[in-house]
Fold this sequence. Notes:
Layout: E1 7-10, H1 20-33, H2 40-47, H3 52-61, H4 70-85, H5 92-102, E2 106-110, H6 114-123, E3 134-136, H7 148-157, E4 164-168, H8 171-179, E5 183-187, H9 193-196, E6 202-204, H10 210-213
Parallel strand pairs: 1-2, 1-4, 2-3, 4-5, 5-6
Amino acid sequence: MKMPPEMVLFDCDGVLVDSEALTADVLCLNLRRHGLALTHAELGAMFLGGTIMGVEAKALELGADLPKDWVDQIYAEVFETLGASVEIIPGVFGVLDALDAAGIPYAVGSNGPHKKMQITLTRTGLINRLEGRVYSREDVAQPKPAPDVYLKAAADAGVAPNRCVVIEDSPNGARAGQAAGMWCLGFAAETDAALLTPVCDDVFHAMGDLPGLLGL
């Protein structure tokens, strides 16, 4: 792909906000209370980049004794933890500054609900930078790995998918970028690069490296 792109699309959790480990802590503790003991590594292998509804379905399959309102309960626990503790991924403000200086639009596409992103993006000071450009799986027919959320963000901006770059930290999300026909860069600060390499066009390890990869 010729750089710079015409638009950059960011996943939220693990790319803009450092929420993955906090969420995993909550999930592991909660599932253990309901009879399913998983390590962080096992949880990540099964659910990274997925949805809470997907976690629920798999946990039930593995024998967890979950209440009917488990999704509501776990969201409440996760939101409380994120609202108190989540931090921005180092280097994100510098990337957004570089995109603004180059006149390149950007947006967020996430499998998370809007309420979750309102909490994390507000706490990290990103909400004003992203106003009107935050897309959730709640806005489309299918969550990632379907391309819907990224295609909607690009269509709303009037940018062709093949002129967009997606920044993802999970194979699930990277597959969504690929399915959308977009260039995908894998952010491997926490995710094993070996998991991202097969489904990304390139992989990087520090957000400070991203402007260079985008040709800014």
